[in-house]
Write a structure and sequence with these properties.
Oligomer: heterodimer
Order of helices and strands of chain A: HHHHHHHHHEEEEEEEH
Distance between the termini of chain A: 93 Å
Distance between the termini of chain B: 83 Å
Largest sheet of chain A: 5 strands, mixed, barrel
Strand order of the largest sheet of chain A: 2-3-4-7-6
Structural class of chain A: alpha+beta
Strand content of chain A: 15-25%
Structural class of chain B: mainly alpha
Shape of chain A: elongated
CATH superfamily of the largest domain in chain B: RNA polymerase sigma factor, region 2, helix turn helix motif
Number of strands of chain B: 0
CATH topology of the largest domain in chain B: Rna Polymerase Sigma Factor, Chain: A
Largest interface: A-B, 24 and 28 residues
Number of domains of chain A: 2
Helix content of chain B: 55-70%
Shape of chain B: elongated
Radius of gyration of chain A: 29 Å
Number of helices of chain B: 9
Radius of gyration of chain B: 20 Å
Helix content of chain A: 55-70%
CATH class of the largest domain in chain B: Mainly Alpha
Largest sheet of chain B: none
Number of helices of chain A: 10
Chain lengths: 274, 204
């Protein structure tokens, strides 16, 4: 035994040094993985919200009111969400490197890996029904003042609350077919009377109370608007298709049940005849 | 015929696998001396090369490294080589000590044959029978190398570790190891050429 070995063993004995429990290391590793998972999830969630906002933008509407494509992109892209995606991607790489074998991968590879995971997760969440409640939650967390929402986040709300620029969106509250007008509440809960005489109404629009509509036209005065084009918002199309899917599912399950009941009846009839 | 079995109190650690050694230490702390017996010499040599200090001076670093290894024995990743894990601990301990003392590693303890191994074969300084002054230049050129290049060059050419082991010891990706070796070597050559030229001019 060398002098150094003796010294080390003596110190271990004298200072009562013990190996750190295996659980300490397991907890630490789990914590690192949990932080990594949370970062990847949040970056995926913000990707979903960005995709949701981008999919909601009606680019044609911008062109109708004389905004160039470049300006439309500049005012419509959710730069705040992009910033948060970048931030959580950065955290993902940081926590990824902290895992047991994370050091074996370059920052570039980890960036591409987590970008791919976030994009896939974001696309999946956007396709699911999770994006809208999440958006409502994050919008709710933001200060309610108009300045904040207008400057930080583009949204359908922002795009379709510009009556002065000829864009108005909201829910129909009452329809007067004889007068070719309807009452509506815009996305900021302001009441409007809309004249739809000579307006080009999209086939998907069913003018009745509670229908969501987007209108391109002219503001006549403080609460009167002349519609030129009326259509359903893009999100409403998504909701419609989801409702259709639900309806199809419930109908198919009902018909399955009916088939099952018929079969049972048929079987019991056969057994009785035997 | 009578067979007698004698219980060997201290089996040869060089014959045991890393996992056998670790399993033994986890059961019996006394068995840690087998780990120390097996790795004391290579780690001492590595620390001397890394710090450029005398053998006696690196003993404290090595002692602290072994104690750290003992405390963290349950954190040993069985997918690694035990030697890589111990080199990593010793390396970190040495770097901490150097930073704490705020000194640059000295090259005074690097033997001439070690210096020659840094250099590519056609430019081997040993074969060119360099003057004593030029060896001194080579030593100081290695000392002047930035820490990250110095670390990989020592591990690759003096400790003869492969890229995987260097990756595990320094906790950097394999591609980075290759880049650091290539750049470190060319930096060293540039530094040596400059100092060689400078010493020639001084002599003239």
């Amino acid at each position: 035994m060398t002098k150094l070995t003796e010294n080390v063993l003596h110190k271990i004995e004298q200072e009562r040094i013990h190996p750190i429990s295996v659980w300490n290391f397991r907890i630490l590793q789990s914590l690192k993985w949990a932080l990594l998972a949370a970062s990847v999830f949040l970056s995926g969630l913000f990707t979903a919200l960005s995709l949701h906002i981008i999919s909601e933008i009606d680019w044609e509407a911008f062109l109708h009111v004389g905004v160039s494509r470049y300006q439309a992109i500049l005012v419509s892209l959710p730069f705040l969400w992009f910033g948060l995606i970048s931030l959580f991607l950065f955290f993902s790489i940081l926590f990824g490197r902290q895992t047991r074998h994370g050091y074996r991968y370059t920052y570039g590879i980890l960036f591409l890996l987590f970008l791919f995971v976030s994009a896939s997760l974001g696309a999946t969440l956007e396709k699911s029904r999770f994006d809208e409640p999440a958006e409502r939650f994050f919008f709710g967390a933001l200060p309610k003042s108009d300045v904040w929402r207008q400057t930080i986040l583009p949204s359908a709300e922002k795009e379709w609350t510009q009556p002065e620029n000829g864009l108005l969106g909201g829910n129909v509250t009452a329809v007067d077919q004889a007068e070719s007008t309807f009452d509506m509440e815009d996305l900021k809960q302001k009441e409007w009377k809309v004249n739809f005489q000579n307006a080009d109404i999209d086939r998907s629009v069913d003018l009745k109370p509670k229908t969501q509509v987007n209108i391109i036209g002219n503001q006549k005065d403080e609460d009167h608007f002349q519609a030129t084009i009326i259509r359903r918002p893009k999100t409403a199309h998504k909701q419609d298709s989801q409702e259709m899917d639900e309806k199809d599912d419930s109908e198919s399950s009902r018909s399955d049940k009916e088939d099952g009941a018929e079969k049972e009846e048929h079987d019991s009839d056969e057994s009785e005849s035997d | 015929m009578v067979f007698s079995f004698s219980k060997d109190p201290s089996p040869d650690p060089s014959l045991m696998t890393d996992n056998e050694l670790i399993a033994k230490v986890k059961k019996d702390s006394e068995a840690f001396k087998l780990v120390m017996d097996k790795y004391e010499l290579p780690l001492t040599r590595y620390l001397v090369r890394l710090t450029g200090w005398a053998r006696e001076e690196v003993e404290d670093i090595l002692q602290e490294s072994f104690i750290k290894a003992y405390r963290n024995i349950n954190d040993f990743d069985t997918s690694l080589k035990l030697s890589s894990w111990l080199y990593r601990i010793a390396h970190n301990q040495a770097i901490d000590t150097i930073r704490h003392l705020a000194v640059r590693p000295a090259a005074s303890e690097l033997p001439v044959e070690d210096l020659a191994r840094f250099l590519p074969a056609p430019l081997n300084l040993e074969n060119q029978e360099l003057l004593r002054q030029e060896w001194q230049n080579a030593r100081s050129a290695i000392t002047r190398l930035p820490e990250r290049y110095r670390n990989v060059l020592i591990l690759r050419f003096l400790e003869e570790k492969d890229y995987e082991e260097i990756m595990d010891i320094l906790k950097i990706p394999k591609g980075t190891v290759a880049t650091l070796i290539r750049r470190g070597r060319s930096l060293l050559m540039k530094e040596l050429k400059t100092s060689h030229f400078r010493s020639r001019n001084t002599t003239i």
